[in-house]
């Protein structure tokens, strides 16, 4: 090999090595700046952050210690993992757009009052967790171009605004944005996520959900506690097991077609009206809650026999549901949270309105109906009921005595509770005073323990 060619190869190798070192140093500099801005010392040599693990304890009392580790991992002299959960970090996160090899980003359980850094240039990202950052003031960052993203978690972090386009996120398997302040329409691009397995949209203010069909891996879907008004259409979801649309404003039953694996269905606390649909086809359904709606009609033969939890008439909801043959699962008449469900043996309603507005038995109600008929026609088929003014006066007198007794008992209970509360509050004040004298301890909850399920650990080399 000619000397000149050998020299060129040597120079090229030196340049490549120098470039790699420079990239690693630049990657580490971003994280070093972050530690410094949070008044924290980093435990690695400057520019050599790979493989570091910095312990942070948020509570130490006696023999008990609660702590978490800030971990950095690298591959091929580039930072690929930044895992900083529950570090009590408060300073704004620096620009991380230069960490182009980053695959794992965990910033959960911190106290940032900031906007989330841009992520769209981090094309290698596979995992993002920015959950339980309760002081955030941010919208969801643009996710365009993150074609390798598999997990995106930002639940309970005070995010606001709308969900950006999810177009192109073909590898995404978990999308959890629950317990935020998000609103508006869920984008139609959600329907293109063919690898999606877990979807969490609950506890926001979303107003509509696009039709979802042909998502072969979707197992869990929670859209409860939102402001949905139009019922969604869900079809051809072969492995969907959990569906929660409760606590919305739906007035009609959603279109549910080809959901053979459905095991849990919660439609409670909506504004559903009319007949309960035929759910007997869902042989795997074991949990059903349709309480706190305005459903009516005969339920015989409409429910699968395998139900183990069935909530139809909890409290006073759905009073117009009934059965004439008893052809429904026993779970639907079992006690629910210490309150018995009441499935009538015949229709107790007229045009969706209960015939009896009190706890009166049908016999008493029939007597009242006969009395009303007699009064209307001028006949007296039941003289005992229409006995003149004396019975009316006696009834008012008895009612007055009963109400007075209830008032006295209620007043006594109220006095006792107020007195009792004052005693309890005195003990609380004393206890707080003692704590103050002994010195307060700041306790931070280990938020990462609440995240389930956890993905596999990041690689470290």
TrEMBL record:
Keyword terms of this UniProt record: Leucine-rich repeat, Membrane, Repeat, Signal, Transmembrane, Transmembrane helix
Keyword Transferase found: no
Source organism superkingdom: Eukaryota
Keyword Glycoprotein annotated: no
Biased composition (Basic and acidic residues): 436-445
Region span, Disordered: 436-461
Cross-referenced Pfam families: LRR_1, LRR_8
Signal sequence, start to end: 1-21
Membrane-spanning parts: 393-418
Protein name according to UniProt: L domain-like protein
């Amino acid at each position: 090999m000619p000397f000149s060619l050998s020299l060129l190869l040597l120079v090229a190798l030196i340049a490549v090595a120098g470039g790699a070192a420079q990239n690693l140093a630049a990657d580490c500099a971003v994280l070093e700046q972050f530690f410094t801005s949070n008044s924290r010392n980093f435990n690695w040599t400057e520019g050599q952050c790979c493989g570091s693990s910095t312990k942070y304890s948020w509570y130490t009392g006696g023999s008990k210690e609660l702590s978490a580790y800030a971990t950095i991992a690298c591959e091929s002299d580039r930072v690929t993992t930044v895992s900083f959960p529950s570090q009590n970090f408060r300073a704004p996160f620096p620009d991380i757009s230069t960490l182009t090899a980053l695959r794992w980003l965990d910033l959960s359980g911190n106290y940032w009052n900031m906007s989330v850094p841009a992520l769209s240039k981090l094309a290698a990202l596979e995992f993002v967790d920015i959950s339980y950052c309760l002081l955030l003031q941010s919208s969801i960052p643009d996710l365009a171009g993150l074609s390798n993203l598999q997990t995106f978690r930002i639940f309970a972090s005070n995010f606001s605004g709308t969900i950006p386009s999810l177009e192109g996120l073909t590898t995404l398997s978990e999308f959890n944005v629950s317990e935020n302040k998000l609103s508006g329409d869920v984008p139609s691009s959600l329907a293109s996520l063919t690898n999606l397995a877990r979807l969490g949209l609950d506890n926001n203010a979303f107003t509509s959900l696009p039709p979802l069909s042909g998502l072969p891996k979707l197992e869990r879907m929670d859209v409860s506690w939102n402001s949905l008004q139009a019922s969604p259409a869900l079809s051809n979801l072969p492995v969907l097991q959990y569906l929660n649309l409760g606590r919305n404003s739906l007035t009609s039953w959603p279109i549910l077609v080809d959901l053979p694996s459905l095991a849990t269905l919660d439609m409670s606390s909506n504004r559903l009206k009319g007949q309960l649909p035929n759910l007997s086809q869902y042989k795997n359904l074991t949990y059903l809650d349709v309480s706190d709606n305005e459903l009516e009609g005969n339920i015989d033969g409409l429910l699968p026999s395998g139900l183990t939890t069935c909530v139809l008439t909890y409290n006073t909801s759905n009073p117009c549901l009934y059965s004439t043959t008893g052809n429904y699962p026993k779970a639907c008449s079992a006690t629910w949270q210490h309150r018995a469900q009441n499935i009538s043996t015949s229709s107790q309603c007229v045009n969706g309105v209960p015939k009896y507005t009190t706890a009166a038995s049908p016999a008493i109600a029939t007597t009242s109906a006969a009395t009303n008929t007699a009064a209307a026609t001028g006949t007296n088929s039941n003289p005992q009921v229409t006995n003149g003014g004396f019975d009316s006066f006696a009834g008012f007198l008895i009612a007055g005595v009963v109400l007075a007794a209830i008032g006295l008992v209620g007043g006594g209970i109220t006095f006792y509770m107020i007195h009792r509360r004052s005693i309890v509050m005195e003990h609380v004040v004393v206890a707080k005073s003692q704590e103050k004298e002994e010195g307060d301890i700041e306790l931070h909850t280990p938020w990462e323990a609440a995240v389930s399920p956890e993905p596999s650990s990041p690689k470290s080399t």
